[in-house]
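Homework help board

Subject: predicted structure for assignment chain

Our instructor gave us this sequence and asked us to write out the predicted structure in token form, then describe one feature. I got the tokens but I'm not sure how to describe them. Can anyone check?
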Amino acid sequence: MRDSQGRIFQERRTFVPKDSPDQPQLRLTEISDPLTHALYICRPNIHVCDERGYFAPVKVLTTPAVPLDKDGKRTLTREGLGKDNVSGLDVTGTRETTTIAIGVIGNDRPISVTKEFWYSPQLGINIVVKRSDPRSGTQTFTVSDISLTEPDPANFAVPAGYRISDHRIIQKGATGGVAHGN
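My token output:
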């Protein structure tokens, strides 16, 4: 969920087959706050939240193929997919294609892995993410049960009884002061 201040709360759960009677188990929660530049990754199994620096993402631009490693054997391209409507929300699509050159991982031909994102500017999140990889198949993640009402502020607080472990990098500024960075 996302509130009017731009804070985002997400749950990560285990995967279970669609026809399984098992329920997905909560693995972790994430709370992102662009105002305080904090990201909390909370693990319920040990009641700890790792605090990291957080800066809201910037607009993704279409790019020509760029190398992802120093040898240029993995490249990334981005392309715009235009606008659409998902679950009554206007969305903008982007496709990222990572190409792995012949022989990098023992492959006898290039491997293309695609990720397709359908982003809602109104909500500030991806509504649909589709990952296609010839080595592992296709996965589609879709946000459902969308409500446009303001969520309870308690959702954006570190859970009671959790210890915070600070993983932000401390950097010395030019003036000799100390600043937290990402």
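Reply (TA_rk): Your tokens look well-formed. For the description, you could write something like this. The chain has one domain: 8-181. That's the kind of observation they're looking for.
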